[in-house]
Structures are given as C-alpha cells and as structure tokens.
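Q: what does this look like with FE2/S2 (inorganic) cluster bound?
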Amino acid sequence: MAMNYSEAIKDGIVSSALYADDGVFNEEIEKIFTQGWVYVAHETEIPNVGDYVRRNIGLEAFVVVRGKDKKVKVISNRCTHRATLLVHEDKGNLRGSLTCWYHGWVFGFDGKLLNVPYGKGSEGLDHKCLPAATVEIYGGFVFATLNPDAIPFDEYLGNGKKIIDRVLDCSPSGKIRVDTGWVRYETQTNWKLQIENNVDGYHLNYVHASLGRALDVRYKDTVMVSEDKLTTEAIDFLGGHIELTIGAGYTKPLEWLGVKEGREMPADIKEYKDAIEEKHSDEVAHEVIYAGPPHAYIFPNLFIAETNIIFYQMEDRHTNVQLSSPILFEGSSDKLNSRFLRLCEGSLGPSSFLLPDDGAITERQSRGHIGRPMDIDLRRGMDREVVGEDGVITSHITDETSQRAFWNHYKTIMSS
Ligand code: FES
Ligand SMILES: [Fe+2]
C-alpha cells in the first residue's frame, strides 16, 4: 500500500514505517536522490585531468571525473553495452578514456562512446553514450542531479550557501581541501536515522557520556551541560538544511581547535589567528576565532561536522555508509592541517569516541523500527520555537526542531 505522507508525518510525530518500509525507500531514491540535487564530491579530490572518484547517486553507480576541459563531470559508471561497472576502484586516474573491462568499449570523460571493438558485427546498431548528470559547484562542493527539470540549483541550496560560506571563511585562503581520503563506516541503519542523529543536540550526555568522562573535550561546556545553562541553538534553515550552533557555546578564542585557557597558544595556531584577523572584518574574524566552522546538514546527504565533512551513500533500506574526511585549509601550514587530520581521527576514525557510539545507537534504533508501526515522537520544544521574518526557525539546541526541519522538507518532497 502506498504511503500517505501527510498522515505519516503530522504534528511532530512520524511513523516508524517511514524508516522500515521498502516501498518508502524506493520512493525516496526516486524523489529525493534521482529527481533532486545531491552532494557527490569535493573538487579537490580530483585536481588533475582524468582523476576520478566513484560515487553513487541514490543506488546507481557514477564516476566523478575531471574532464580534458578541466571541468568536473559526473557520468554513469555503467557500461552502455551490458551494464558492467567501468571503474571499480574508489579513486584513481583514467589516463585518457574509460575502457570497459568486459568487451573493451571505450568512452570519453564526457561519456561519449569512442570505440566498439570488432565493429563490423555491430554496424548500424545505435549504441549509446554514457548518461551524464547536471553538475553545479559551490565553494568546491560538487552537487549533481539526474533530473533535467530539477529545481534551480540556487533554489535547492538556499541557506546552505551561508553554511558553506562560513566553512570557507575559516580558511585564510578562502579555500579548503578535502583530499586526504575517506573513512568508510557501514551500519545497519536507515539513512534518515544518521541524519537525525547528526543534528540531535539532545543525546550527547547519554550516547557520548564516556567521551566526556575520558577526555577534556570542548563539548563539555557547550552541549554537555544542564538544560538551563545551554546557550546553543537548533536552527531550521528551511529547504531541509539544519544547524546546531555548537560553536556559539565556546567562550575562548580557538577553543574549537583545542586551545585551552591558561596555556600558551601554539605558534601555528597563533599564525592562523593572525591570518584570519588580517583577512576578515572584526565581526567575521570574531565569528571564525570563537565559533569555528559550523555543525550543519545540507539536504539530503551532506553534513559539515565542524572541521570534518561527512556524506552518505546507502546500499539499501537498512544499510548506510557514512564517509568522513577532515577539512584542510588550502595554503595553511602542514602543522595546522595535521591538527584537523588528528581531530578527524579522534572523533570519526575507526576506534574513535564519537562515530562508533553514534553508529551503535542508530543500529539499535533501526532494529526497534521492525514490527508494528509505532509513533516516533519528535515534539520536544515545539512551543518554544522562534520563527524569524525569513521563516528560519530557532530553538533550544536539545529541541527536536532539527528533526522536524528534516521531516517537514521531506514531507514536501515525498508528497509531490
Ligand atoms: S559490458 Fe562493457 S563492453 Fe560489454
Ligand atoms: Fe552523536
């Protein structure tokens, strides 16, 4: 039976069937991931002509490649002969063309079919080129859509632009690098649970209690304090884009980079601070130095986790792959950039504190969805939200404003 999204998502309550139903998942692949815009790569992953990374759009295989014209292309990774994957490694360089491993058909970086071996037998046949997605790049972040009639990119990205701008503001050169490779973490979890969890300001004292006990982490003063002491917020930026203003809780300069009060600032961080103060107005420099990069989600599959980038590739309804990589600042010292690498390993590496805890809790939640449909209660804080003139909604960081922001946008798309 087709899902009635207006009934299944109502007044802050959503049905557990939305996470557990194969029909819903297939409809999401079509309406969200095939008809809409999705994040596919950062362009610094493929700096040279022929460099590629393998990515999915929805469940379908694609290659993101730097073309001979230096532009980023997103082309199908399925041979138009009999669908064999053209590239099977995660990344590499194509050295001139894509040649299918099976019968040797050759394609250009723009998807054009260049050669079919033993051509006499296929004379007169209408062989196809590789389908290509429409590509847009903002601040080096590459987005793609398979829908020629998708909404305009600017409309889709909306306030997500401000989120990316704030990431770029943190780099003294205004540019970032995402080229150290990805940690791949697979969980038996519906993809939406990991999105909800990433913008959940309510779970830190519980899921991450061991982190707070073991380490002197900065989160202790920002999101791991009692409810009335919290000054940080959840923001519904509309269009499915969401932020938790964790950085607003920091009270000391460059706390987000691990600087501790009463200790001398390391030389590379001092150099960074000076560069930011020279580059920006006092107001922007203050924002960068105190708050740092945002903790924010860009619909449907990109998450900026302060100094890290995370994106999602799902295998099926209950298998989700999270890929994470540190954000490095182009032109900054190796010493500074190595700090971001260490921060990423410490929070999102295979034996880190945050990632396995979040993976475990979302797997348990996903298991809980199996059975008779039940109401998922996301009504926390509904009566204390503040709606701005631009429609942007702000509330206490522990409020489920962030989950409702996701579901409201989801409902709009899925009901269309
Ligand atoms: S499947 Fe690719 S050439 Fe036959
Ligand atoms: Fe978490």
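The pocket of fe (ii) ion (ligand 2) is lined by residues 197, 203, 207-208, 354, 358 (CB under 6 Å). Residues 110 and 171 are 32 Å apart (CA to CA).
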